[in-house]
From TrEMBL:
Name the UniProt record assigns to this protein: Uncharacterized protein
Pfam family, one: LON_substr_bdg
Listed Low complexity bias regions: 13-26, 36-58
Source organism (scientific name): Nannochloropsis salina CCMP1776
Residue stretches making up the Lon N-terminal domain: 177-379
């Protein structure tokens, strides 16, 4: 037997949250409509000053000549936007269950909880559960449809606060792009280079589960001893291109290195992840030439280095396809920094320290000088002849 809650006769029915105009009876509604229609017909009779053609096919009427429609009662959003909205809708009614602030770009989970999009993105990066009730939540919060009704309510009820929340969200989203999980490895790698990995450690399995439906990026940190990092260490952003998951949770992936960065502050290890570290990055760029003469000399060195590298690596048909597939197309001399990093990546050497020094250097001229010295040695060894 289903129990229902009964209301005693003397117990008042709670008032609606949003007041609406009292509904007219059908007779009153019809009477008012007929009166309005008669007034309109009188004002648009043949004796009226209106010179419009009132034929059925006439389509050039101004909207002021249209017959009146039924008067509408105040809408839901009119009530929200009224001066007395503070008595009807409070900030707590539109509060995010995670940040406890005004909902911004609201997203509703399958279990029915509405949260800020950015709050849900962060929560699902840690575990695929609703942060409010812990129900399984497998949605992609970045692309999930926005709950437009809640967004419209928030904008109408608290317009200034909502604009402030939008700006805060934009800044947080930009900062979040450079907060990434770390993958440690013992080989230096350069921007533009392809990265192919087989991940089997539990912490990296978890990393892949988080990023594959999110940012699809992680921080590649070359480390040759203890697989730890600190502020100031070199790091590179790897952008996921392809991934294949195996039944036991392992994965094979292909990524492309997007750029050089340094770790802005000491990384932290997230509890319960088996040692998965996170770091915040800041971009690393070479120093600009200090004079026009230095800039001209750098351009000339770039052109010379490019000619040497092209003769050694790209004119040989047996290795050109392999080089381009792994390192990408060679940049032009108008971008000396990118060109010098490309040549440093392609140089065949087993000395990791040499490559690491070229990777962390911010002196483009010095990097080009070292690269040309190595290229000259390769040419002397017989490389650079077309086959």
């Amino acid at each position: 037997m289903v129990r229902t809650r009964s209301r005693s006769p003397e117990q008042p029915v709670p008032a609606a949250v949003f007041p609406v105009a009292a509904a007219a009876t059908p007779a009153e509604d019809r009477q008012g409509y007929d009166a309005n229609r008669s007034a309109w017909n009188s004002s648009h009779s043949s004796n009226s000053s209106c010179d419009c053609n009132h034929s059925p096919n006439h389509s050039s009427h101004d909207s002021s000549h249209a017959p009146p429609s039924r008067p509408l009662t105040p809408t839901f959003f009119d009530a929200v936007a009224s001066p007395a909205r503070g008595e009807m809708l409070t900030l707590g009614d539109l509060e995010c269950g995670v940040c406890l602030g005004l909902l911004c770009e609201a997203v509703t989970t399958p279990c029915g909880h509405s949260l800020c999009r950015l709050c849900l993105v962060r929560a699902l990066q840690r575990q695929t559960k609703c942060p409010v009730c812990r129900a399984v939540c497998m949605i992609n919060a970045e692309d999930h449809a926005e709950t437009r009704l809640l967004t419209r309510l928030a904008k109408r009820a608290f317009p200034a606060l909502y604009e402030q929340r939008l700006e805060e969200t934009r800044q947080e989203r930009e900062a979040l792009k450079l907060l990434l999980p770390i993958f440690f490895y013992n080989l230096p790698i350069f921007p533009g280079e392809a990265l192919r990995l087989h991940l089997f450690e539990p912490r990296y399995r978890l990393m892949m589960q988080r990023i594959v439906n999110g940012s699809r990026r992680f921080a590649y940190v070359p480390n040759y001893s203890n697989y730890r990092a600190k502020a100031g260490d070199i790091a590179l952003i790897a952008e996921l291109k392809e991934v294949r998951f195996m039944r036991d949770g392992r994965s094979e992936l292909e990524a492309r290195i997007a750029g050089r960065f340094t770790i802005a502050e000491d990384p932290y290890v997230e509890d319960g992840t088996g040692g998965l570290s996170y770091c915040r990055l800041k971009e690393l760029r070479d120093e600009s030439p200090k004079s026009a003469e230095a800039s001209q000399a750098l351009r000339q060195a770039s052109e010379k280095a490019r000619e040497m590298a092209h003769a050694i690596f790209l004119e040989r048909r047996d290795i050109k396809a392999v080089v381009v597939d792994r390192y990408g197309e060679m940049p032009g001399p108008q971008t000396p920094e990118a060109l010098s990093l490309w040549i440093a990546a392609v140089l065949p050497t087993e000395n990791r320290q040499i490559k690491h020094d070229l990777l962390v250097s911010t002196d483009t001229s010095h990097r080009l000088e070292v690269c040309m010295s190595k290229l000259q040695a390769l040419r002397g060894a017989g490389m650079g002849k077309s086959s």
